[in-house]
Amino acid sequence: xxxAPGWYDRPVKRFLMLAGPHPxxxxxxxxxxxxxxAGRGRLLWILSxxxxxxxxxKAPPPSPAAxxxxxxxxxxxxxxxxxxxxxxxxxxxxxxxxxxxIERWELESAIHGVxxxxxxxxxxxxxxxxxxxxxxxxxxxxVLAQESRARKLDVSDGELEARLAETKRDFKTDEAFQxxxxxxxxxxxxxxxxMRTSMQVSKLIEAEINPKxxxxxxxxxxxxxxxxxxxxxxxxxxxxxxxIGLPPNADAAAKTQARAxxxxxxxxxxxxxxxxxxxxxxxxxxxxxxxxxxLGFFPKGQMEPAxxxxxxxxxxxAVSGLVETSFGFHIIKVHExxxxxxxxxxxxxxxxxxxxxxxxRDAKLVEFVGQAKAKRKVEMLV
Length: 382
Fold this sequence. Notes:
The chain is α+β, with helices and mostly antiparallel strands. Helices cover 47% and strands 12% of the residues.
């Protein structure tokens, strides 16, 4: 069961993406849209202002009237206003909030993040729509940061340095960190600026939004009873893996080297080595490596096809051979298979509460942003 919308549908996630630590997740889980495919590397999360890619947004549910059946012919619904074209050459400053500039590099960072998640460049016919959405998100983001500072919720240099040090720990050397930063086309001061701004937004949400959010157990129970179909699960599996990663355009020599390393690890596993210990020390999927390679339970069709086929074919307690995906080579250990079933409330109650809490928080945040923006002069320069 997956209640939470994608990252691009959640206002709080949009504003908090930069605020919290985001270790590299598996990036194997498959979405039904390309936009949900995870990016590579935590630095990309940090450098990417969370942006609403309108090209990926889900369609709204049908209205009650539409669900009721045919209705008499009605006047043609008004068309949404045309999207203002974005200039081919972006100016150095794209907007101002009370004179504070939003610079071109911030939008370019957001674009890079969207394209990284989608796995491809923004289609030309979607450029105006997506970039306009990103500009609007950047404006909201800066409005919240300004509001945070106005409420004396600023971020100290010590807090900023601690967050930067936490980010650098994800890289084996400072040189690797600098290379990753350069690959994204950003300077260290720009990274620090985005970090500080996102931390200001995080503080504001913690202080002004979260205390006003409350979901009762009766609401959780009612949601469960009204949505039982959403909690029916097909076959699922609980597995761990060790991944020896490869870049997208790895040459034959790199593949040979990665395969040899993975094969050596597989030999150790089959020789009795501690799987979780090896995953922690050797896996390039740092998100799961911190948990000994544990991926938790997941259903069929959520992983890449090669990984999916292998994991559901391995018996509980057994280890796969080498499995190759677009991310590299994997060694998979299966802990448990579960037959199709309806998840009980005791199992999903926490997820439901998290979903309802997020939905309530999102609504309050949208209202708060509107009020904060109304107090400021917003100048759109594109």
